[in-house]
Write a structure and sequence with these properties.
heterodimer, A: alpha/beta, two-stranded parallel sheet, 9 helices, globular, B: alpha+beta, about 10% strand
Amino acid sequence: MNKGMTFNALKAGTKVAVDPKFLFDFEAVRQEVPGTSFHETTSDDYFGNIASRDTAFDVIYLDGLHTAEQTIRDLVNATSFLKDCGVIIIDDVFPCSYVASLPNRRETRLIRQASGDTTGAWMGDVYRLVFFVETFCQQFSYCTVNNNHGQLVMWREPRRSVPDRTLTQVGEKAYKDIFLEKDSFQCAPLSQILKRIEAARR
Amino acid sequence: MNLAPAEVPVEPASDVFPSLTPHDPISRNRIVQAILDLFDAPITLRLG
């Protein structure tokens, strides 16, 4: 969550944040902003031990560890705590470079050092989640916001069909497939995505 | 002798897919807030 600037600026009735290590004084924010709570723990611990069974969210924003496995686990857990008309947003599905798309953070750092790359972005292989959603989450429709660094938005609206793709094929997706199979990302302007969500809720 | 060209021609960026450096990108906060605004007093969870 870095310094909490994104989360703290959002306007909502109730805000819950989960992060293994907050880099700001979350106790102070909790006292100053009513309806805000913080859980300094992993997402697995939150979903397994802290979140109440009757908890249901309107909007869940996933920006955890940038690996496909962890983000898919967060996504599956999130669907159990999402209201029927709720929306899930997943960050960083579009890595800004090949190096930024590597799931192993140590390898990313070593390649950066060897190649003189001074950028620090790391999105990992979260892009593989898009192919997972497309193939295995038929009860959800989704889009990736155009002209953004890669935010996927998904909501409950069944899709008529899904691609014939194995789980192994999803796991073997590579950085090049972001471009070669860009239709899978279903890129759309934010305004169009909002209209689709509203239409699905009627 | 069959020599490959030194450089592959670069095609113009597509407007359909976000480029590596999107022009005038929408901030993540604006996107999340726009979706929150679809709800009355929304309850939201953020991981990470």
